[in-house]
Amino acid sequence: MPGYEKVDDYINYHNEIRIKKSTTRFVGTVAAFAIVLVIFIHFKILVGTPSKKAASVNKANSIKTSTEIKKEPSKSNTYVLKDSDKYKLTDAQVKNLTGHELMLARNEIFARHGYVFKKEPFKSYFAAKSWYTPNPSFRGADSQLSSVERYNIKFILKYENMKNQ
Length: 165
Known about the structure:
Layout: H1 7-46, H2 52-70, H3 91-94, H4 99-112, H5 122-127, H6 147-163
Helix pairs in contact: 4-6
Transmembrane segments: 26-47
Keywords: Membrane, Transmembrane, Transmembrane helix
Pfam family, one: YARHG
């Protein structure tokens, strides 16, 4: 055989090529999976469904702050971020908020529309707000929110994820 001293050299050469091809296919498959995963996560955030990470952030914050919620005066008219439904938030407004305050601020946007919270701590926290009126017809869909509110939800969520990493 031209260029090969032994049959073993020929076999080893072809085995190396076969391994390189299968490795390339594997890497391509993993890359495609990663792209699909990123798109899926991005889509879930855009439609307002929290990712698993955001859900775990909410769960962790609700556990450690349930006593903080009890300290809230009854029928309070306060907001974490008062005008988050009217103006786009800035870094200066949110950078010093705790993860818990960010979580409440994000859900405050939905509460203004009367979103009916089914889980604690949101259910009791917003029920204690004088401005909160439950509205079962509001489902929290993007189409029911203004562009400013959608922007602020994503903006707050970005800070929540940074605080809880």
